[in-house]
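A protein record pairs a chain with a discrete description of its three-dimensional fold. The following entry can be read in just this way.
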Amino acid sequence: MANKAKNIASNLELELNEANEKIKRLETALQEIENKFNDAESIANFGFFELDTETFSRTWTAGLFKIVGCDPEYGQLQDYYDNKKIMHPDDWDYFYNVTQTIIGTGKGAEIDVRAIKPDGSIIFIHIVAKPKLDENKKVIGINGTAQDITYLKKIENDLKKSETFYKTLFENTGTASIIIDEDATIIMANTQFEKLSGYSKEELENKMSSKEMVFKEDLERLEKYHYMRINNVGNPPESYEAKLIDKNGNMRFALINAAIIPGTKYIIASITDLNELKIAEETLQTTLIRFYTILRNMRASVLLVTKENVIEFANPAFCEYFGLNESPKDLRGLTASEIINKIKNAYQYPEEEVSHIHEIVSQRQPVMGEEIPMFGERTCLRDFIPIFVGEKLYGRLWLHLDITERKKMEKELADSERRYRHMVEKAAAGMFILDENGIIKYLNEHMAQALDYKKNEMLNKHIKSFVDENEDFYRYRKPVEIQIERYNWFKFLNKEKNVFWSNLTISPTFNYKKEYTGLLGIVTDINMQKGLEEAFLEREEILTDIIYDMMEMLNSTAKDKDYELNKNEVSNHEDLSNN
């Protein structure tokens, strides 16, 4: 019996020791779990809490105290309402209302609130709260976690700022831009693209494929580029031209710059509208064609040289004038030195002219209307025109115009003019030319001498200073072409203001536009004739007086005779009566 009891006691002791060992192992395991939990709280920067909704007492883990920067040993946070001490004032009402909602509805919630640590710094806490229910589904408490997400909030804010920055940049880049996904769906478009395409963002974003806007002839090529870019196959071009169709069905030429956004399957594409550029290119091409057509058909010889001293263009007249066997096309691409060697012998003084040409080119200044003697007694009028765009030299233009015949005509004209001027100057009649205002622009020597003036005393003076005040032939009236008027016994006034008698013939003058330019006058001196006429009239008057006196005498004699006759007749009559 005693042995049995001893055995039982021994077994109980053994079991107790085993139990103690298990307890110790459990305590160790629990401590390890608690340590791991605390480590997890510390590493993850979160903590657990429990709220008794009956007493509003709360239980926090060490991790939660650490988050808010409070020491659990001091017990400064005892119940729910102590949360107000650490809660940001602007978030307390929100926190409180969520708590009441959980209690009232029995539904959990997730919220972000701000807390103020003892050092004054503000942290963001993400709270996940769930209701604790009894067997009657009544809320008797709230359990949850609280995690410090300050760093995540900072990243989120930085991300939002970055997103805002890049969205602003995307929107205001000045170029029509879109972002498309791997299926070519437009997921974002800026305002410039709206204007280019005619579609609104609402019509484009996440609804429309970029393929719908591509001209069918270009679609296969652009799809190939898209596949290569999305799948990192080959080297698709970053920039290429394509034709797009806008909302109104208009075709637009566009330059597309596309690139994949790193780390994504998204492609950003910038589209530059080339319609105006294409129109400008076509206009420029048309202008160039017209320009070269004009140059090609000019009578003057034309040579266009680039800034690299290479012949860009020569017209047929150039080849013909300089006696070249080559065609204008054959000259293209020759150097300036080569073309000079080909044409220099056409000049009368080749070496001097080559040196002069080099001097002109080096000065880079226009030289216009330079007369150059050519071989074979020809004369050339040469222009040199450096071609500048802004201050940059792009080439030079040489023009050669054969003026041999013109020079001959000019010489003949000059000779003729000298002959006629001599004739006019030496003419026996006075001549003058008035402008439309009556100002003397020319007069010959005879005209000046007739009025006792020198030519320079009359030039550029009004004709009214040299005529009788009653004479007004010079006053403007609408002239008729080829209208000649003659004034007989016209009174000019000489330097002494004595009358100079003349016959004046005037004719209107016109320019090449048939516009009236003034009068041409020819003056014939009739002073001698006027003197003879006056002398004749004076003699005629004397003779008339003599004749009148004689007639008076004859008349008187006749009257006396008549009286005697009458007297005799009366006497005879009386005698007859008496008888």
Summary: The first helix runs from residue 2 to 44. The CA atoms of residues 438 and 462 lie 6 Å apart. The longest strand covers residues 122-133. Confidence is low (pLDDT under 50) at residues 567-579.
